[in-house]
Amino acid sequence: MDLLQLRYFQTVARYEHISRAAEELSVAQPSLSRTIARLEAELGATLFERQGRGIKLNEYGSLFLRHVDRALSELDDGIRAVREAGELGLGRVSIACETLLTITTVLGSFRATQPYADVRLFQSNAEEMQRQLRVGEVDFCVASQQLNGTHLESLELTREEVLLAVPRGHRLDGRESVTIREIADEPFVTTRKGHWQRTLLETLFASEGLTPLLSCEGDEPGASQVLISAGLGIGLIPAMSRQAGTETRVPVAWVHLDAPACHRVLTLVWRRDAYLSEAALRLREFITSRPFMTHRLPDPNRSRS
Fold it and tell me: What's the whole-model pTM score?
């Protein structure tokens, strides 16, 4: 058993598709299949269930993958630490978030103060973030949903209200607030399952025994306001978008939702046992030592007259 076999297995397990994994690894598909077969023979166990042309990780494969992820992550951390020790820079820091707009301003300010830090940014949903942290692809995640794992540390950055955005001229344009039942029949622009806007929308409607009507589902949360402005539906938008003045470029009307859970919590998440470069340590200090640049939840006792 060698490292190449483990790398190949890890990639095939991620895609659960031989041809996609072969393309990612830049190897021939038959060669990859033979490597996996040799690994299974050495282990004395089948790691994948063959389903026609597809494959699926079985219980032995899932068990083995957890150990492979941990071992390769430790190895990659060691390689990274040695390389960065011989470099003049601060090393690399990688961060993932659900929408790039959430972290853009913060990272811009960090780069201005730390020009020698190599900063990498990824856009990922919650499930992908958990995988990226587990295998060491990223150092930090800025998440709007809870990431599960006993090996993870997290720190709350901010809580902000989530507003209802509607097209200009919509029947709700000019309203101060609405209830969930008042918008039960409105078509919603939202994200696919796995993103926080979709989770929040379904949670709010489920609390009233309702299911939202969807007019548009996408993978780019930052595009929602553009689609709403074009009249394709209404949607949930974090207050930071209003604070940033995006309505001057993408005009929408903002309405408060009369629902106690209509907010999002941003957390910084990292793996407790992971190696962190000097750049990563400085970024964590930079983010956590100042108020995060979002619109804080308003005082619940404030009058909305």
Answer: 0.66
Domain boundary among 36, 65, 81: 81
> Which one, of 193, 272, 275, 190, lies nearest residue 234 by Cα?
190
Instruction: Give the side-chain half-sphere CA count within 13 A for 7.
Output: 10
Beta pairing class for 253-257 and 177-178 = parallel
For the stretch 246-260, pLDDT in tens is: 555 678 999 999 998
pLDDT for res 298 = 42
Of 250, 205, 210, 206, the C-alpha closest to 232 is 250
d(CA 256, CA 242): 12
Radius of gyration of the chain (CA): 23
Q: How many domains does the chain have?
A: 3
Name the helix (H) or strand (E) containing 256. Answer: strand 253-257
Please report whether residue 301 resides in a domain.
no
Amino acid code (one letter) for 206 = A
Kind and range of the H or E element at 130?
helix 126-135
Cα separation, 261 vs 273, whole angstroms: 33
**Inter-residue contact 204 to 183 (CB < 8 Å):** no
